[in-house]
């Protein structure tokens, strides 16, 4: 397997992690080992193996919808830390 450059700083930025230089070296080495191990899977002969999407059989386990009384809005909002009219008010999370 060709050794590729692993940009730990970019991965840390995507995960919103602040890493020390020592952690960057450690994680770079660990991730490299993991990718090398995964690369060994490419060496397996899978020509006689039927492609599958799930290991176990999948079946529909949905139930029929049942109409029932829902929680009253006053009861739902009684413990809300902040509310406006009949709605929960939450902090803005998207820039």
Strand content: under 5%
- What is the helix content? 25-40%
User: Which CATH top level class of the domain at 8-43 fits?
Assistant: Mainly Alpha
- Sheet having the most strands: 2 strands, antiparallel
Please give the CATH architecture of the domain at 8-43: Orthogonal Bundle
CATH topology of the domain at 8-43: Histone, subunit A
What's the number of helices? 3
Q: How many runs of DSSP E, i.e. beta strands?
A: 2
Low-confidence stretches: none
State the shape. flat
Strand order of the largest sheet: 1-2
SSE string, helix = H, strand = E? Answer: HHHEE
Instruction: Supply the helix-strand structural class.
Output: mainly alpha
Question: What is the CA-based Rg, rounded?
Answer: 25 Å
| Arithmetic mean of pLDDT | 88
Task: State the separation between the terminal residues, measured CA to CA.
Answer: 41 Å
Provide an overview of this structure.
The model has no long low-confidence stretch (mean pLDDT 88). The chain has a domain at 8-43: Histone, subunit A (Orthogonal Bundle). It has helices at residues 8-14, 21-39, 73-77; strands at 83-84, 87-88. Strands 1-2 form a two-stranded antiparallel ribbon. It is flat. The protein has 95 residues and is mainly alpha-helical.
At a glance:
With 95 residues, the chain is mainly alpha-helical. It contains three helices and two strands, in the order αααββ.
Could you list some keywords that capture this structure?
3 helices, mainly alpha, Histone, subunit A, 95 residues, 2 strands
